[in-house]
Amino acid sequence: MVAVESCGQWMVFSCDQKLVAVHRTEKREAFVFDCSTAEKRTKSTEDEKLSDGSTQDDSGSDRILALAVSGSGKLLAVTDDSKRLVLFGSEPSWSCISTRWVARRCTALVFSQTEEELLVADKSGDVYSFSVTEPQREGELKMGHLSMLLAVTVSPDNRYIITADRDEKIRVSQLRSPHNIQSFCLGHQQFVSALHINSQHPLWLLSGSGDGTLKLWELERGRRLQSRDLRKAETETESSESQTVSRISSSPDGRHVAVQCERVSTLEVFTLQEEGEEKLVPHSSLRLPHCPLDMTFDLEGRLWVLMDSGDEPLRLYAYEQSSWECDAEDPELNRVTEAFRPHWETLEASVRTHNRFEQLQKSSYDNVSAYLQKKQQRLEEQQLKRTKAQRPNGNKRAKKEASA
């Protein structure tokens, strides 16, 4: 996983096996955590069996799979391919609070709004709750889906947990009693890959999918308010079939929503408005020189974009005079770029070869068209046979009439 997040005054990157945090405004040494040299699981723990009778399999690559930052920016968590779940504190300086172990490899993380628990979604469809206030306590099973979970988020009032899976379902459940399902948001045609709730519209849910659409929902009733097909903005070299929404993020003031699609070199920026039918309004299309790997807003509302380029790994956009402008000379951008550049090589190879959504696309077959084509061919062949059979009879009748 390659990601960038704003954590207070720090910009945090996940670079394959490494977590790198760089301070934006001060000349402080970058914090680097390498999962390949982190705490290993003990033999006794490895031999323990899961509740379903299966054994642990921890032969992972130590590659970071998911990352989450708390709302206050004081906490950060990562999970990796070796099933570690590591909790960090960023103030007054970076420190590792705890290292715990998950039952199965994780796909998404999110902190509760109170920052008392960390919710961990995994590939089997389960969500576990890990205590933040008791950082050594094991996780507890919270809820489950019948399919792999790909995204999870929590409503701003801490009432609902929203989960999305590979089978196009979005479920809104009560956080304190997840067996109580509030609603389903149904309508995507492919796996749901991204969820987001804007801070200024706490009852609206944004979702992105492998079907190339961005949808807006009223989450308590599961009612779809609007749908945007992002594939209309594709270029000649970018296939709409593989256009997957990979990230949705909004500015701290809630005015702007940025949407990123996998391997598409354009970021779409929208605004949200209460009045009128068009609640999700297009604002800008930011054309990038390289494909974006991830993006996020900082505390000042500026948009940071991590790109697939060793020469220019980062771009910074600021909203000025009703438009988004690239600021290549910003001192914070230059400071962060120089501190991050030495770690680029650790992820460059995997970035170019790995597409995390490639195996999730469902193939569709147009059997009806093939059936109709074969049927038409059979009808034409039968008609041809009838025509040939009628010709000899016609010749015999003509001879009889001539002889008469």
TrEMBL record:
Cited SMART domains: WD40
Q: Where the protein is mainly located, per its record?
A: nucleus
Where do the record's region annotations for Disordered lie?
228-251, 378-404
Subcellular localization, as worded in the UniProt entry: Nucleus
Which residue intervals correspond to the WD repeats? 142-183, 185-227
According to UniProt, this protein's pathway is: tRNA modification; N(7)-methylguanine-tRNA biosynthesis
* Compositionally biased spans, kind Basic residues: 385-404
Keywords from the UniProt entry? Nucleus, Repeat, tRNA processing, WD repeat
Q: Name one Pfam family in it.
A: WD40
State the function annotated in the UniProt record.
Answer: Required for the formation of N(7)-methylguanine at position 46 (m7G46) in tRNA. In the complex, it is required to stabilize and induce conformational changes of the catalytic subunit.
Family (UniProt): Belongs to the WD repeat TRM82 family.
Q: What is this protein called?
A: Uncharacterized protein
Q: Which organism is it from?
A: Salarias fasciatus
**Phylogenetic classification of the source organism:** Eukaryota, Metazoa, Chordata, Craniata, Vertebrata
